[in-house]
Protein backbone atom coordinates (compact mmCIF):
# COMPACT_ATOMS: atom_id res chain seq x y z
CA UNK A 1 0.00 0.00 0.00
CA UNK A 2 1.32 3.43 -0.94
CA UNK A 3 1.98 5.91 1.81
CA UNK A 4 0.97 9.55 1.48
CA UNK A 5 2.58 11.22 -1.50
CA UNK A 6 6.10 12.38 -0.63
CA UNK A 7 6.77 16.07 -0.28
CA UNK A 8 9.20 16.88 -3.07
CA UNK A 9 11.46 19.90 -2.92
CA UNK A 10 13.15 21.35 -6.00
CA UNK A 11 16.96 21.29 -6.09
CA UNK A 12 19.43 23.14 -8.33
CA UNK A 13 23.11 22.14 -8.32
CA UNK A 14 25.68 24.31 -10.15
CA UNK A 15 28.19 22.23 -12.10
CA UNK A 16 30.35 24.93 -13.69
CA UNK A 17 28.90 25.41 -17.17
CA UNK A 18 25.31 25.47 -15.83
CA UNK A 19 23.12 23.62 -13.36
CA UNK A 20 21.53 20.22 -12.97
CA UNK A 21 18.07 20.42 -11.46
CA UNK A 22 15.83 17.90 -9.85
CA UNK A 23 13.88 17.24 -6.71
CA UNK A 24 14.40 15.56 -3.37
CA UNK A 25 12.26 14.05 -0.65
CA UNK A 26 12.54 12.09 2.60
CA UNK A 27 10.46 8.96 3.01
CA UNK A 28 9.46 8.70 6.64
CA UNK A 29 11.99 8.54 9.46
CA UNK A 30 15.30 6.73 9.26
CA UNK A 31 15.75 4.21 12.05
CA UNK A 32 18.97 4.43 14.00
CA UNK A 33 20.85 7.00 11.96
CA UNK A 34 21.04 8.93 8.70
CA UNK A 35 18.70 8.02 5.85
CA UNK A 36 19.83 5.76 3.03
CA UNK A 37 20.50 8.01 0.07
CA UNK A 38 19.15 7.13 -3.38
CA UNK A 39 20.09 8.93 -6.59
CA UNK A 40 17.38 8.31 -9.22
CA UNK A 41 18.37 8.64 -12.90
CA UNK A 42 15.74 8.64 -15.65
CA UNK A 43 15.87 7.31 -19.20
CA UNK A 44 16.56 9.01 -22.53
CA UNK A 45 14.36 12.08 -23.11
CA UNK A 46 12.47 11.38 -19.87
CA UNK A 47 12.91 13.40 -16.68
CA UNK A 48 13.01 13.20 -12.89
CA UNK A 49 9.23 12.72 -12.68
CA UNK A 50 9.81 9.21 -14.05
CA UNK A 51 10.04 7.94 -10.45
CA UNK A 52 6.95 9.66 -9.05
CA UNK A 53 4.88 6.47 -9.05
CA UNK A 54 7.55 4.16 -7.60
CA UNK A 55 9.03 6.32 -4.84
CA UNK A 56 5.87 6.35 -2.63
CA UNK A 57 6.02 2.53 -2.57
CA UNK A 58 9.63 2.36 -1.36
CA UNK A 59 10.52 1.83 2.31
CA UNK A 60 10.76 4.55 4.93
CA UNK A 61 14.20 5.85 5.75
CA UNK A 62 15.23 6.89 2.24
CA UNK A 63 16.44 10.27 1.04
CA UNK A 64 15.69 10.32 -2.68
CA UNK A 65 17.27 12.73 -5.14
CA UNK A 66 15.81 12.50 -8.66
CA UNK A 67 17.87 14.57 -11.08
CA UNK A 68 17.15 15.69 -14.62
CA UNK A 69 20.15 14.72 -16.73
CA UNK A 70 21.87 17.52 -18.61
CA UNK A 71 19.72 18.67 -21.53
CA UNK A 72 16.60 17.07 -20.04
CA UNK A 73 13.74 18.35 -17.90
CA UNK A 74 14.64 21.51 -16.00
CA UNK A 75 18.41 21.01 -16.19
CA UNK A 76 20.45 23.34 -18.39
CA UNK A 77 21.46 22.41 -21.90
CA UNK A 78 25.09 21.73 -22.60
CA UNK A 79 27.01 24.66 -24.11
CA UNK A 80 28.02 24.76 -27.79
CA UNK A 81 30.75 22.30 -28.63
CA UNK A 82 29.71 19.76 -25.98
CA UNK A 83 28.02 16.49 -26.91
CA UNK A 84 25.66 14.18 -25.04
CA UNK A 85 26.92 10.70 -24.26
CA UNK A 86 27.00 8.49 -21.18
CA UNK A 87 30.46 9.54 -20.04
CA UNK A 88 29.66 13.24 -20.39
CA UNK A 89 26.52 12.76 -18.28
CA UNK A 90 28.58 10.84 -15.72
CA UNK A 91 31.12 13.67 -15.40
CA UNK A 92 28.39 16.21 -14.67
CA UNK A 93 26.60 13.91 -12.23
CA UNK A 94 29.86 13.25 -10.41
CA UNK A 95 30.41 17.00 -10.06
CA UNK A 96 26.88 17.47 -8.73
CA UNK A 97 27.37 14.72 -6.15
CA UNK A 98 30.71 16.21 -5.13
CA UNK A 99 29.16 19.65 -4.60
CA UNK A 100 26.31 18.16 -2.58
CA UNK A 101 28.72 16.12 -0.48
CA UNK A 102 26.99 12.88 -1.44
CA UNK A 103 28.92 9.64 -1.00
CA UNK A 104 27.81 6.12 -0.13
CA UNK A 105 24.55 6.28 -2.09
CA UNK A 106 22.39 3.88 -4.06
CA UNK A 107 21.75 4.57 -7.74
CA UNK A 108 18.25 3.67 -8.95
CA UNK A 109 18.31 4.05 -12.71
CA UNK A 110 16.13 3.37 -15.75
CA UNK A 111 17.20 2.70 -19.33
CA UNK A 112 19.70 5.32 -20.59
CA UNK A 113 20.18 6.45 -16.99
CA UNK A 114 21.09 2.86 -16.12
CA UNK A 115 23.84 2.89 -18.76
CA UNK A 116 25.29 5.96 -17.05
CA UNK A 117 24.80 4.35 -13.63
CA UNK A 118 26.72 1.19 -14.56
CA UNK A 119 29.72 3.30 -15.58
CA UNK A 120 29.39 5.39 -12.41
CA UNK A 121 29.43 2.29 -10.19
CA UNK A 122 32.48 0.87 -11.98
CA UNK A 123 34.49 4.11 -12.01
CA UNK A 124 33.64 5.32 -8.49
CA UNK A 125 33.01 2.23 -6.35
CA UNK A 126 33.85 4.18 -3.19
CA UNK A 127 30.75 6.34 -3.70
CA UNK A 128 28.14 3.84 -4.91
CA UNK A 129 26.74 1.58 -2.22
CA UNK A 130 24.42 -0.31 -4.55
CA UNK A 131 22.95 -0.24 -8.03
CA UNK A 132 19.35 -0.89 -9.12
CA UNK A 133 19.01 -1.26 -12.90
CA UNK A 134 15.51 -0.94 -14.37
CA UNK A 135 15.08 -2.58 -17.79
CA UNK A 136 18.60 -2.16 -19.11
CA UNK A 137 20.00 -5.67 -19.31
CA UNK A 138 22.04 -5.54 -22.50
CA UNK A 139 23.64 -8.68 -23.93
CA UNK A 140 25.99 -6.48 -25.94
CA UNK A 141 26.41 -2.99 -27.34
CA UNK A 142 26.73 -3.08 -31.08
CA UNK A 143 29.38 -0.96 -32.70
CA UNK A 144 27.09 1.20 -34.79
CA UNK A 145 27.37 1.86 -38.49
CA UNK A 146 29.11 4.87 -40.02
CA UNK A 147 25.74 6.14 -41.26
CA UNK A 148 24.49 6.37 -37.67
CA UNK A 149 27.52 8.34 -36.56
CA UNK A 150 27.23 10.71 -39.50
CA UNK A 151 23.54 11.30 -38.76
CA UNK A 152 24.28 12.15 -35.13
CA UNK A 153 27.07 14.50 -36.17
CA UNK A 154 24.77 16.23 -38.67
CA UNK A 155 22.05 16.73 -36.06
CA UNK A 156 24.52 18.17 -33.58
CA UNK A 157 26.08 20.49 -36.16
CA UNK A 158 22.70 21.76 -37.37
CA UNK A 159 21.65 22.57 -33.81
CA UNK A 160 24.96 24.32 -33.08
CA UNK A 161 24.55 26.47 -36.22
CA UNK A 162 20.99 27.37 -35.28
CA UNK A 163 19.68 25.43 -38.28
CA UNK A 164 17.84 22.73 -36.36
CA UNK A 165 14.19 21.98 -36.80
CA UNK A 166 11.83 24.67 -35.57
CA UNK A 167 10.36 24.15 -32.12
CA UNK A 168 6.74 23.20 -32.51
CA UNK A 169 4.04 24.30 -30.11
CA UNK A 170 1.48 21.71 -29.02
CA UNK A 171 -1.80 21.69 -27.19
CA UNK A 172 -1.78 19.68 -23.98
CA UNK A 173 -3.66 16.85 -25.68
CA UNK A 174 -1.16 16.79 -28.55
CA UNK A 175 1.81 16.84 -26.17
CA UNK A 176 0.40 13.93 -24.16
CA UNK A 177 -0.29 11.97 -27.33
CA UNK A 178 3.28 12.50 -28.55
CA UNK A 179 4.73 11.48 -25.19
CA UNK A 180 2.83 8.19 -25.44
CA UNK A 181 3.63 7.60 -29.12
CA UNK A 182 7.35 8.35 -28.75
CA UNK A 183 7.68 5.69 -26.06
CA UNK A 184 5.79 2.96 -27.86
CA UNK A 185 7.28 -0.38 -28.63
CA UNK A 186 10.73 -1.75 -28.97
CA UNK A 187 9.09 -5.14 -28.47
CA UNK A 188 7.32 -7.33 -31.00
CA UNK A 189 3.88 -6.64 -29.52
CA UNK A 190 4.34 -2.88 -29.75
CA UNK A 191 2.84 -2.39 -26.32
CA UNK A 192 2.70 1.24 -25.21
CA UNK A 193 5.45 1.91 -22.69
CA UNK A 194 3.43 4.69 -21.09
CA UNK A 195 -0.26 5.48 -21.05
CA UNK A 196 -1.85 8.91 -20.80
CA UNK A 197 -1.76 8.84 -16.98
CA UNK A 198 1.99 8.21 -17.03
CA UNK A 199 2.48 10.86 -19.71
CA UNK A 200 0.75 13.38 -17.45
CA UNK A 201 3.37 12.64 -14.78
CA UNK A 202 6.24 13.31 -17.19
CA UNK A 203 4.68 16.33 -18.90
CA UNK A 204 5.41 19.15 -16.37
CA UNK A 205 9.18 18.65 -16.67
CA UNK A 206 9.07 17.55 -20.31
CA UNK A 207 7.41 20.70 -21.67
CA UNK A 208 7.13 24.39 -20.81
CA UNK A 209 4.30 26.83 -21.32
CA UNK A 210 4.77 29.20 -24.24
CA UNK A 211 2.43 31.41 -26.24
CA UNK A 212 -0.11 29.14 -27.82
CA UNK A 213 0.58 25.97 -25.84
CA UNK A 214 3.52 23.76 -24.85
CA UNK A 215 7.05 23.32 -26.22
CA UNK A 216 9.53 20.59 -25.31
CA UNK A 217 12.21 21.49 -22.80
CA UNK A 218 14.86 18.97 -23.86
CA UNK A 219 17.89 19.95 -25.91
CA UNK A 220 17.52 18.59 -29.45
CA UNK A 221 21.22 17.74 -29.32
CA UNK A 222 20.39 15.22 -26.59
CA UNK A 223 18.97 12.97 -29.32
CA UNK A 224 22.58 12.20 -30.22
CA UNK A 225 23.62 9.65 -27.62
CA UNK A 226 26.86 8.51 -29.27
CA UNK A 227 26.44 4.96 -27.98
CA UNK A 228 29.13 3.95 -30.47
CA UNK A 229 31.56 4.66 -27.65
CA UNK A 230 30.26 1.75 -25.62
CA UNK A 231 30.87 -1.41 -27.62
CA UNK A 232 30.57 -5.00 -26.45
CA UNK A 233 34.08 -5.48 -25.05
CA UNK A 234 33.90 -2.17 -23.20
CA UNK A 235 30.45 -3.00 -21.78
CA UNK A 236 31.43 -6.41 -20.45
CA UNK A 237 34.63 -4.98 -18.99
CA UNK A 238 32.65 -2.36 -17.06
CA UNK A 239 30.08 -4.84 -15.73
CA UNK A 240 32.92 -7.07 -14.58
CA UNK A 241 34.25 -4.26 -12.38
CA UNK A 242 31.05 -3.43 -10.49
CA UNK A 243 31.56 -4.73 -6.96
CA UNK A 244 28.64 -3.21 -5.04
CA UNK A 245 25.33 -5.06 -4.60
CA UNK A 246 23.40 -5.03 -7.89
CA UNK A 247 19.74 -5.62 -8.66
CA UNK A 248 18.53 -5.92 -12.26
CA UNK A 249 14.83 -5.69 -13.09
CA UNK A 250 13.86 -6.87 -16.57
CA UNK A 251 10.43 -6.06 -18.02
CA UNK A 252 8.95 -8.94 -20.01
CA UNK A 253 7.78 -6.58 -22.77
CA UNK A 254 10.55 -4.01 -22.39
CA UNK A 255 13.63 -3.33 -24.48
CA UNK A 256 15.39 -6.55 -23.43
CA UNK A 257 13.92 -8.80 -26.12
CA UNK A 258 16.92 -10.89 -27.16
CA UNK A 259 16.77 -14.68 -26.55
CA UNK A 260 17.41 -15.51 -22.91
CA UNK A 261 20.68 -17.31 -23.59
CA UNK A 262 22.26 -14.10 -24.90
CA UNK A 263 21.86 -12.53 -21.47
CA UNK A 264 23.68 -15.35 -19.69
CA UNK A 265 27.21 -13.83 -20.04
CA UNK A 266 26.02 -10.48 -18.69
CA UNK A 267 24.25 -12.05 -15.73
CA UNK A 268 27.33 -14.18 -15.04
CA UNK A 269 29.58 -11.10 -15.12
CA UNK A 270 27.38 -9.29 -12.61
CA UNK A 271 27.29 -12.37 -10.36
CA UNK A 272 31.08 -12.79 -10.41
CA UNK A 273 31.85 -9.20 -9.45
CA UNK A 274 28.92 -7.93 -7.34
CA UNK A 275 28.87 -8.72 -3.63
CA UNK A 276 25.17 -9.47 -4.01
CA UNK A 277 23.28 -9.92 -7.27
CA UNK A 278 19.49 -10.08 -7.64
CA UNK A 279 17.67 -10.60 -10.93
CA UNK A 280 13.92 -10.11 -11.28
CA UNK A 281 11.57 -10.31 -14.24
CA UNK A 282 8.28 -8.45 -14.07
CA UNK A 283 5.26 -8.26 -16.35
CA UNK A 284 5.05 -4.97 -18.20
CA UNK A 285 6.68 -2.71 -20.77
CA UNK A 286 9.82 -0.60 -20.64
CA UNK A 287 8.34 2.02 -18.28
CA UNK A 288 6.77 -0.51 -15.90
CA UNK A 289 8.28 1.38 -12.94
CA UNK A 290 6.05 4.32 -13.92
CA UNK A 291 2.92 2.54 -15.13
CA UNK A 292 2.80 -0.45 -12.72
CA UNK A 293 5.27 0.32 -9.91
CA UNK A 294 3.66 -2.19 -7.54
CA UNK A 295 5.06 -5.00 -9.70
CA UNK A 296 8.63 -4.21 -8.66
CA UNK A 297 8.25 -2.23 -5.42
CA UNK A 298 8.42 -5.27 -3.13
CA UNK A 299 11.56 -6.71 -4.72
CA UNK A 300 13.30 -3.32 -4.74
CA UNK A 301 12.27 -2.79 -1.11
CA UNK A 302 13.68 -6.18 -0.13
CA UNK A 303 16.94 -5.39 -1.89
CA UNK A 304 17.28 -2.01 -0.15
CA UNK A 305 16.29 -3.18 3.33
CA UNK A 306 18.02 -6.57 3.34
CA UNK A 307 20.95 -6.48 0.92
CA UNK A 308 21.94 -2.82 1.01
CA UNK A 309 21.02 -1.51 4.45
CA UNK A 310 23.48 -3.88 6.15
CA UNK A 311 26.24 -1.32 5.64
CA UNK A 312 26.41 1.86 7.68
CA UNK A 313 25.54 5.15 6.02
CA UNK A 314 28.64 7.34 6.19
CA UNK A 315 27.29 10.73 5.22
CA UNK A 316 24.94 13.39 6.51
CA UNK A 317 22.42 15.21 4.35
CA UNK A 318 23.41 18.50 2.74
CA UNK A 319 20.30 19.05 0.63
Task: Supply database-style keywords.
single chain; 319 residues; alpha/beta; 8-stranded mixed β-sheet; two-stranded antiparallel ribbon; 9 helices; globular
Structural overview:
It is a single chain. The chain is of the alpha/beta class. The protein is built from nine helices and ten strands. Helix 2 links the parallel strand 5 and strand 6. The two termini are 28 Å apart.
Give, in order, the helices and strands: EEEEHEHEHHHEEHEHEHH
Question: Which regions have little confidence, pLDDT < 50, spanning 5+ residues?
Answer: 313-318
Q: How do the strands line up in the largest sheet?
A: 1-2-4-3-5-6-9-10
Distance between the termini: 28 Å
The shape, in one word, is globular
Describe the main β-sheet briefly. Answer: 8 strands, mixed
Mean pLDDT: 90
Radius of gyration: 19 Å
Number of strands: 10
- Count the DSSP helices: 9
The SS-based structural class is alpha/beta
| Portion of residues within helices | 25-40%
Strand content: 15-25%
Amino acid sequence: MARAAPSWREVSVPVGWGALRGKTCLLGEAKGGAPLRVLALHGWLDNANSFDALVPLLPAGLEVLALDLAGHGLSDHLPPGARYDAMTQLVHLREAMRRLGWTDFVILAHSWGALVANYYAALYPQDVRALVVLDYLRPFHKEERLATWRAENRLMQREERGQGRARRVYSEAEALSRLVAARKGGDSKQLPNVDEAAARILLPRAARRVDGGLAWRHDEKARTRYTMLYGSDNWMYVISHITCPVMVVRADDGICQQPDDLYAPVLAAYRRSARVFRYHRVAGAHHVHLTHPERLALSVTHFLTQDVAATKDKSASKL
